[in-house]
Amino acid sequence: MTERKSEEAEITCDCKLGRIAKKYDLLALDKALVEYWTDDGDEQRSTRELATYVNHRILETALTNANVPRKEGEVENTYRLLTSDDITSGTRIETKKHLQRDGVPVEDVESDFVSHQTVYNHLTKCLDASVETPSDEERLERSAEKLGALQNRTAVVTADTVDQLDRKGILEIGEFNVNVSVTVTCEDCFQEYTIRDLLDQQSCDCKRLGASER
Ligand SMILES: [Zn+2]
Ligand SMILES: [Zn+2]
Q1: What spacing in Å lies between the alpha carbon of 185 and ligand 2's midpoint?
Q2: How many angstroms separate the CA atoms of 33 and 116, rounded?
Q3: pTM, to two decimals
Q4: Nearest ligand for residue 190 CA
């Protein structure tokens, strides 16, 4: 916890989650939330899971502040007793009474618990995080789609124009097809590619030539 100062300064927003993070001194919470949310592997967690994660830390801090000695898994268990649907109201009341006796401000703690919506808003609005950061493949795919649509449009307009001129007798042509092909030429290796091939290969010949020189 030597990085305490800089991490404290990290939380700057004033939404519920930002206020809670300050109140409970939840260090590096933003960093953890963004990492878990945007992880594209096994560590990825939903905003629902992240809300539980935040709430566990709130409860943990509240128990620590009240000097309640804890056993392993007690935070998770107490949280479940306070919030889960499958807990009877009798058990819930008992749990609250118990916490109050221990000096935990349980009403405050409960109203400080965050919802998955609060986590989502904090991530997207305060932290400007997004899980929709496209991968290289998605970018290539979108680019191919965009250019493909543009080529189709060019083909349609060309066919219409030729057709109109044909009908007016200004131009003569039989049945026809229009093909639009865009090529890109590298001025270093002089290779010419259709845009489709270039997107598929993701490089011109420069890379290959450069590699063989080494
Ligand atoms: Zn926020
Ligand atoms: Zn090249």
Answers
A1: 8
A2: 12
A3: 0.57
A4: 2
Displacement of CA 30 from its chain's centroid (Å): 14
From the CA of 14, the nearest ligand is 1
Confidence of residue 135 (pLDDT cuts 50, 70, 90): confident
- pLDDT at residue number 132: 64
Kindly identify the ligand whose nearest atom is closest to the C-alpha of 206: 2
Q: Which ligand is nearest to the CA of 10?
A: 1
> For residue 32, what pLDDT is reported?
92
Taking the centre of ligand 2 as the mean of its atom positions, its distance from the CA of residue 139, in whole angstroms, is: 21
Report the separation in Å between the CA atom of 142 and the middle of ligand 2, taken as the mean of its atom positions: 23
Per-residue pLDDT at 115:
96
Ligand minimally distant from the alpha carbon of residue 207: 2
Predicted local distance difference test score (pLDDT) of residue 1: 41
Ligand 2 centre distance from Cα of residue 144 (Å): 20
pLDDT tens, position by position, 63-119: 999 999 888 899 999 999 999 988 999 999 999 999 999 999 999 999 999 999 999
